[in-house]
Design brief:
two-stranded antiparallel sheet; 7 helices; about 40% helix; globular; AB_hydrolase_fold
Length: about 220
């Protein structure tokens, strides 16, 4: 099902959307996706895990980060602070009892909820990889770009990285952001088997990984 939720934004609250399975059950899991292209690469795997969780008696909700996918907000206006506020609001709206943060989603998830963090990523690592990809693309096009100069530009003017128009506040936030994990269980990719889908060039299904993730969550919850 597709559900709407009131999301804070620079111009006030607006309706955003989440994919979910809501049968008003006791356990209600909010899934905070990773930002940027990793969200697209992992979405099918997460949705398949949600179907398995539904079969195990667990409700789940997967909202987009504001500015991403079908969001009505502009990506250039986003920041880690805005995403944190949005995910906290989504948790309240859907009555989440638990949370699963995926990769860079660990930088913005509502840390007061118990739950799981799948392969948490540091903001600096995400930023460094995207700047490196831009430098390589420029080199292949016969242009020279310097990583340090790009980062300095990003801090003050914002920067386009991998097709994303990142504002200065998002760049500055990513540069020093660390996952704030307080009691949530860290899940390694090895527990799911296979390579991480965020490493692939294109979105893909991974039914074994989806089943393993859902089984791990259900077992931890005693379902």
């Amino acid at each position: 099902m597709i559900a709407s939720w009131p999301c804070p934004g620079p111009d006030g609250h607006c309706d955003e959307y989440a994919f979910g399975f809501d049968r008003a059950r006791k356990r209600r899991l909010l899934i905070v996706p990773p930002p940027f292209d990793e969200a697209n690469r992992m979405r099918r795997m997460l949705v398949d895990a949600m179907r398995a969780l539904d079969a195990a008696g667990i409700d789940s909700f997967l909202p987009d980060l504001p500015g991403c996918n079908e969001s009505s907000q502009h990506f250039s206006a986003q920041s880690l602070h805005a995403w944190r506020g949005a995910m906290a609001q989504a948790a309240r709206h859907f009555g989440a009892t638990d949370v699963l943060a995926v990769r860079g989603g660990a930088l913005v998830f509502p840390g007061h909820l118990p739950g799981w963090v799948l392969e948490p990523a540091k903001g600096a690592s995400i930023l460094r990889q995207m700047i490196r990809a831009r430098v390589i693309a420029a080199r292949e096009a016969g242009r020279h770009e310097d990583s340090a100069a790009l980062l300095e530009q990003g801090r003050t003017q914002g920067l386009e990285l991998s097709g994303w128009h990142c504002g200065a506040s998002l760049i500055a936030g990513l540069e020093n952001a660390l996952p704030e994990i307080e009691g949530q269980r860290i899940v390694s990719q090895g527990e799911l088997g296979g390579a991480g889908l965020w490493l692939r060039a294109e979105p893909a299904a991974a039914p074994e990984q989806s089943a393993a993730l859902a089984r791990l969550i259900a077992q931890d919850l005693g379902e």
